[in-house]
Amino acid sequence: MVDGQLLRMDKQFRHLKQRQQETISYWLYEEYRHQWLEIGQEPLPRDTGRIVDAVMEKIKAAGIWIPEQEVRQYFSRKKSHFKNRIEKELDSPSGPSSTESTESRGSLCAFFTCKMEKLARGLGSESLFCSQTSEIAKSLNEQVNAFHDRNLSQSSYPV
């Protein structure tokens, strides 16, 4: 019993609520990414302790009780997924601030244009002008870029 609460001493990661699992997973990914960007390469296995310790502080601050070993095991299972995700982020930057080619932006715009033309035909509106479709596609493209460029570290994730 701790602070008037009965704690399960053999608690496993799967016993947490889904939102708690998602939050811890996000914190692990965020810390792993931070370490990666700080040293300029994939963190070494010896950096695992530093990553898990930083996340354990956040877990304790959030009032979640889980043994550190469970978090370590979860992190070791998810590390390859985090690695692939970060490598994909670093290999294909998105957003207006990146050096993305106008060709790929054009193909995204063309994708939206094609989708909207199909939607218009499905709704029975054959007279959707190219300029209207293009303007809508540009607007959607801007919204997608803004979504990709949002700062996740300032978002709050209540547990």
Blueprint of the fold:
Elements: H1 18-39, H2 48-61, H3 68-91, H4 102-122, H5 130-148
Helix pairs in contact: 1-2, 1-3, 2-3, 4-5
Label the overall shape. Answer: elongated
Total count of helical runs of at least 4 residues: 5
Q: Describe the main β-sheet briefly.
A: none
H/E order of the elements?
A: HHHHH
Query: Total domains, how many?
Result: 2
Radius of gyration: 22 Å
Computed structural class = mainly alpha
Termini separation: 22 Å
**Beta-strand percent range:** under 5%
In short:
This protein is mainly alpha-helical and 159 residues long.
What does the model show?
It is a single chain. The protein has five helices and no strands. It is 63% helix and 0% strand. The two termini are 22 Å apart. Residues 95-107 have low confidence and may be disordered. The protein has two domains: 13-91, no CATH class; 102-148. The relative contact order is 0.11. It is mainly α and 159 residues long. It is elongated, with a radius of gyration of 22 Å.
List keywords for this structure.
159 residues, mainly alpha, 2 domains, 5 helices, 63% helix
